[in-house]
Write a structure and sequence with these properties.
single chain, 123 residues, mainly beta, four-stranded antiparallel β-sheet, 11 strands
Amino acid sequence: QLQLVESGGDLVQPGGSLRLSCAASGFALDYLAIGWFRQAPGKEREGVSCISRRGSSTNYADSVKGRFTMSSDNAKNTVYLQMNSLEPEDTAVYYCAATLTFNSCSASLMRYWGKGTLVTVSS
């Protein structure tokens, strides 16, 4: 059974930076397509970034390109989301999700989800 645990959410001022972590257990990252999603209050869930199996590609939502960087550490079986130049619009619960079956991070294909970590961007 794959388990995902997010951490790193916090209150940060606009323009600040934050790094989120998602620790995976049960399967090695190479077997997963794994992504970050977020859901702001009153809004639909949004895909933020995705690393495909074996890290062959990394994709980002247009809203975070150039500001967010997703990376992985296979030795720690952990993925990260480095978030820079944060804006109030980035306020959301951030979730890590993964699939063993598909090489895509479409939300409907993600079978495994973490419980989320709250990021609040406010002065």
